[in-house]
Amino acid sequence: MTIxxxxxxxxxxxxxxxxxxxxxxxxxxxxxxxxxxNQRGVIFFRDQTITPPQQVEFSRRFGEIEYNIxxxxxxxxxxxxxxVVSNITENGAPIGIKRAGENWHSDMCYTARPPRGTMLxxxxxxxxxxxxxxxxxxxxxxxxxxxxxxxxxxxxxxRHATFDFTGRKRAFPPKQSEIDRNPPVCxxxxxxxxxxxxxxxYVMRDDCTAIEGMEQxxxxxxxxxxxxxxxxPQFIYRHQWRVGDVLMWDNCTVQHRAVQDYDMPxxxxxHRTTMGGSVPV
Length: 281
Ligand code: OGA
Ligand code: MN
Fold this sequence. Notes:
By secondary structure, the protein is an alpha+beta fold. It has one domain (4-275): Clavaminate synthase-like (Double-stranded beta-helix, 4-Layer Sandwich). It is 20% helix and 29% strand. It is built from six helices and 20 strands. It has helices at 27-40, 52-60, 141-146, 150-156, 176-181, 216-230; strands at residues 4-7, 14-17, 42-45, 75-76, 79-86, 89-90, 93-94, 117-124, 127-128, 131-132, 136-140, 160-163, 185-188, 190-192, 199-201, 208-211, 236-239, 246-250, 254-258, 269-275. A hairpin with a 2-residue loop joins strand 4 and strand 5 (79-86). The mean pLDDT is 95. Bound molecules: N-oxalylglycine (OGA) and manganese (II) ion (MN). N-oxalylglycine binds next to strand 19 and strand 20. Manganese (II) ion binds at residues 100-101, 105, 107, 256.
């Protein structure tokens, strides 16, 4: 295999060519993939045909599989590590989590050790007369940090925020047991990427409810302003899906959101895995 890494031209993202994820990857190929992933925050492979166990095996090379609040409800038969993300209903029941991540977020930031990244394998992509719908947008929180003036940087560096599981309205309301399992946690709002050392803003609306040692009114202003700053057009890569795409993002480097511009009978079906990470520093 000859691996080729083609940056998207946006602030995040690279396409990786010359790799067949259904085959065993040698260490050199994997190292090149992992490096592109760390550097670009989002990587994707087109035209992949992989089974659920192959997706799980590839995911595991990046970190242990994490289970989230959707895993219990919507996993793939025989592969409990994979969550179905879909708007499809069969026999009156949804086969997966619908409208996952409609608003800007970083996955499971409300946990003490948020996942390193998340992977989606596109099985069905909605379209309107051939125009693909249901894109996913990614915003580089690293580029957003780089663009901040020193005056604001010094105000927020070394600060911590409260991340509250109940702050965000979810597509599927969590059970009380899930709320109890996820008490508020504290994370730095400027993270250092564990592999590249790049600084990344780690602030989102609704999840971040307070900044330690700061008046609530000022904290609210800062959270809103920083959350808006991260998602400015110059920091965004918008992925237009094709069936067979395998795409993964890094939850420290980028935030993401699902564009909800489709509905049944336009079907969307993704297989999702989540890779364990480290405590944010
Ligand atoms: C997710 C998510 C976005 C999408 O699975 O965590 O935010 O476009 N998905 O499906
Ligand atoms: Mn998400």
